[in-house]
Design a protein that fits this description.
The protein is mainly α and 281 residues long. It contains 15 helices and no strands. Helix 13 packs antiparallel against helix 15.
């Protein structure tokens, strides 16, 4: 049973589920039955796409030290069972998205699944360093799905806010990939830190991390409300920018790992701040 839970990547998907909830609350939704349906649908669809990722990448997971103990490469679950499991969760989540949430929220549920499971995992992951850049639109979709459920439509503020997630994802994933760049080279996966030299990788990832933090601060100042939310955002932005500058100055594996850990909470803090802000209208 634990192995099937691991397939869902619970340490990853909770943030995407939070993004959907934040979109819903910020869009005008409340603590009601629709929120419960959104939580259920998000868990099934996002978890299903994560489980499918485990299935599709089982061969490269076996080649990398960081992932070699996952359920499929370690033999805890057979590929056939993981495929049935992932597609069952995904199908149920998408179907319930349309049935319980409505056509437009359901469309964004499907879009989030499609960008992660198909565009990122199946199509781009092994072909180009742009994999996470294009696959990152899955993050936009989960936020927009929640927002449109609460608001009833997609507007400019929603699109701008969704790009906070989009900008955060590449710098976050690449900072992690930097630590395991030799693993990615061994597996033949063209993540950015594995295909350019270390100095360039540090500069690109750190500067993108700073840009993401600045964008998040700009968004909250323009679209958020409340001193508590501002304090949360400022704390996350300060930690992210400081650790990025430190990484640029030191250019070491340890400094990059500190940047990864220090900048990880910023998106969570931003999403919580949005929920504390209340609806933008």
């Amino acid at each position: 049973m634990k192995s099937y839970l691991v397939l869902l990547k619970p340490r990853v998907i909770w943030l995407l589920i939070l993004a959907a909830v934040a979109g819903y609350i910020y869009g005008g939704g409340g603590l009601d039955q629709r929120l419960l349906w959104l939580l259920l649908v998000s868990f099934l669809s996002v978890g299903g796409s994560a489980a499918f990722n485990h299935y599709w990448e089982r061969d490269i997971d076996a080649l990398m030290a960081r992932t070699s103990r996952r359920p499929l490469p370690s033999g805890q679950i057979t590929p056939e069972k993981s495929l049935v499991y992932s597609l069952s969760l995904s199908t149920l989540g998408i179907a319930l998205g349309f049935l319980l949430l409505g056509p437009l929220p359901g469309f964004f549920v499907f879009l989030g699944w499609f960008f992660y499971a198909v565009i990122y995992t199946m199509w781009l992951k092994r072909k180009t360093w742009l994999n996470i850049v294009l696959g990152g639109f899955a993050g936009n979709a989960v936020f927009l799905g929640g927002y449109v459920l609460g608001r009833g439509t997609v507007d400019i503020p929603a699109l701008l806010l969704s790009f906070a997630i989009y900008l955060w994802i590449p710098s976050h994933i690449w900072a992690l990939a930097y630590k395991y760049r030799e693993d990615y080279r061994k597996a033949g996966v063209p993540m950015l830190p594995a295909i350019i030299n270390e100095k360039k990788a540090v500069a690109v990832i750190s500067l993108l991390n700073i840009a993401s933090a600045v964008y998040i601060l700009f968004l909250y100042l323009a679209l958020g409300r409340g001193v508590v939310g501002l304090a949360l955002v400022l704390a996350g932005v300060a930690a992210s920018i400081a650790s990025s500058i430190y990484a640029i100055a030191k250019k070491t594996d340890d400094a990059m790992w500190k940047m990864y850990k220090s900048s990880s909470p910023i998106l969570t803090l931003f999403l919580i701040a949005l929920m504390l802000s209340g609806p933008y209208y």
